[in-house]
Automatic annotation (TrEMBL):
Residues 1-334 form the Serpin domain. GO terms for molecular function: serine-type endopeptidase inhibitor activity. The keyword DNA repair does not apply. This is GM20841. SMART domains: SERPIN (SM00093). The keyword Transcription regulation does not apply. Keywords: Protease inhibitor, Serine protease inhibitor. CDD domains: serpin42Da-like (cd19601). PANTHER family: GH10112P-RELATED, SERINE PROTEASE INHIBITOR, SERPIN.
Amino acid sequence: MARLGAEKETATQLDQGLGLASSDPEQIAQSFHQVLAAYQDSQILRIANKIFVMDGYQLRQEFDQLLSKQFLSAAQSVDFSKNVQAAATINNWVEQRTNHLIKDLVPASVLNSDSRLVLVNAIHFKGAWKHQFSKHLTRPDTFHLDGERTVQVSMMSLKESLRYADLPALDATALELPYKDSDLSMLIVLPKTKTGLPALEEKLRLTTLSQITQALYETKVALKLPRFKAEFQVELSEVFQKLGMSRMFSDQAEFGKMLQSPEPLKVSAIIHKAFIEVNEEGTEAAAATGMAVRRKRAIMSLEEPIEFLADHPFTYVLVHQKDLPLFWGSVVRLEENTSASSEHDEL
């Protein structure tokens, strides 16, 4: 949304830093609108966006209309100098749109009279597996935190025909778990070694989702996957600046397309918070922000399914059928005898 109101160097930095396919605001808005509109009435996935602007800053009519039409949202004025009340306004909006899973997204301490703009994205997903895990098959099992430490976790089990891929270039395998009555699925990418996640994450930075999904083929799989639940929060301003998008946070920020007057406007905070829970029934998630592939089509009997044992750190992606990642994270650590995990997520 900020990109639509940006111009000059600020717009250029956002185009490059975000890897946008087009620099045309109308095309950018339309691409996001297609996703938002597709799930506007969905009971499974809900996506909402909001810009909160300091009182006294009037938005241009064209920009406000673009937000309403393409992002299905209108900007809201807030008095950031009353930081406690302003934070409550923002946090209540987020909580209502994430099924009360994301609370206290914005701390009052990050808002003050110098704050000018807060961008908020909220997403809530609750989907049932197309092939549900049987609870009576869930057993305590070992999860390897690294090459030495282990914990006991609740490990779910499933034998089913699923889409699977061997990815030698990533030194990993991948498995797709579809959701019922949905065009969404969870893609799990599992390193072949217990300590392979850091190397996998580095390789994934240079790998597109389509390179992985195009390698998937249907086969019988014996899956073991731990139940997990996690919550994660981060302030993204520093990350954006490291990616070359620093101007938007400075007094030189150019958001001239947003305002009716030449008042200075800059981004004061970009805060991301995520929640995800995976169990036997499905997934509930919320958030408030050349590779050589070998197709392995081995001939095997029904008694010999491919084993996919997620008993060590792995990456997962909540994926739209058109290879659009909606939620991306890695299970790094699971706590002893519980379904809680400590992980890093991004959206």
